[in-house]
Structure formats: structure tokens, C-alpha cells
Amino acid sequence: MTVLTTSFGILAPLTIIALPFALFAWRMLAMWRSRDRPAWAAATTAGLDVGIVVVSLEILALTMMPMGEGSTLHLMPGSDILTEFSDDGSLWQIAGNLLLLAPLGLLVPLRVPALRSIPRITFFAFAVSVAIELIQYLLHAGRVTSTDDVLLNTLGAAAGATLTCGWVRRPEPVAIPAQARRQINGVRHPVRTGK
């Protein structure tokens, strides 16, 4: 339980403090966007944008908070996962790493059309996780930089993306009819339409 409060103890107060600001930002952004789009679309996109920002700030707070001095580097894949399954380990660490980027895996595909496939969001989560681990190592804030953290973070985001990517409808391709052609003096020319 000590690992849980040490690792995630900042999350509850941070969420309580951020919630009123997030609701205010959502309302203001939705009102501003409703000038040129339907109110439901403005509220939805504003909610997604605010949600992505709040989740990103919470991820930064969780991962960049100093835990002591120096940095530890664990590059052997699977070593930290096996340690957590031992008698001295804590499964909360595995669960936390799986859930860390899962909200981004859920929200980002809904807002960014380029990331509406599971392979793309998985690569995006991998890049974000590698960046987090690299920054933790460079800050020397008492954190463990681990390949297992990258693996678990990426798996969590991919699992979140599997829930979202099925909801998002891809636009149907529009069939463009072949241009009508007319013949002038034996040469075929496209028919011009419009003004």
C-alpha cells in the first residue's frame, strides 16, 4: 500500500484542484466553438480537448515528480515485471503502468483523425512512453527508467485504443463519376460544368 500512496498519492488532490478549472475551460471553449458549428459538436470537441490536456498534465505530474536522488536504468525486458510478481513486489506498479497512457489511447483517436488506427496509436504511445522514460532518466529524480514501463504503457494505450477505434466511423469514400466527354471536330474534350 505504501507503493500505491507514494506513486499515485498526488493524483487525487491534483484531480480535485484541476476539475473546476477543467469544467470552466470546457464551458468557455464550447461556447467559443459553438459560433460556427452545432452546440453538441462544440461541446464534444471541447470536452475531448480539455480531457486530453487534463490527462496529459496528470501523466506529467505522476511521472516527473521527484522520488529521491539519482536515476536507475533497467534495460532487460521482463526483469521489472518478474520482480513485481515476487513476494516483495507490488502488482500496483504493473497496473499503474498499464493504466498510465490508457486514457490517451481512449481520447486521442476520437480527436485526431490521423491516429484512428490501433497501430498508429500504439506507435504514438510507444513514442510518448520512451520520451517519458528518457526525461525521467535525464532529470535524475529518483525514478527507475525501464523498458518494462515502456512496454506496459504502450500495451495500456493500445488496449484503450481498441475500445475507441471501433466507435469512430470512418467517412465513406465519395464516388466521383467519370467526366462526361464530348467530341468536337473528332477530338474528345471534357464537358465543363458549373460557372
UniProtKB/TrEMBL annotation:
Residues 73-164 form the VanZ-like domain. The keyword Transmembrane applies. The chain crosses the membrane at residues 6-26, 38-65, 90-109, 121-139. It comes from the Bacteria. It holds the Pfam family VanZ. Keywords: Membrane, Transmembrane, Transmembrane helix. InterPro entries: Teicoplanin_resist-assoc, VanZ-like. PANTHER family: INTEGRAL MEMBRANE PROTEIN, MEMBRANE PROTEIN-RELATED. This is VanZ family protein. The lineage of its organism: Bacteria, Bacillati, Actinomycetota, Actinomycetes, Pseudonocardiales.
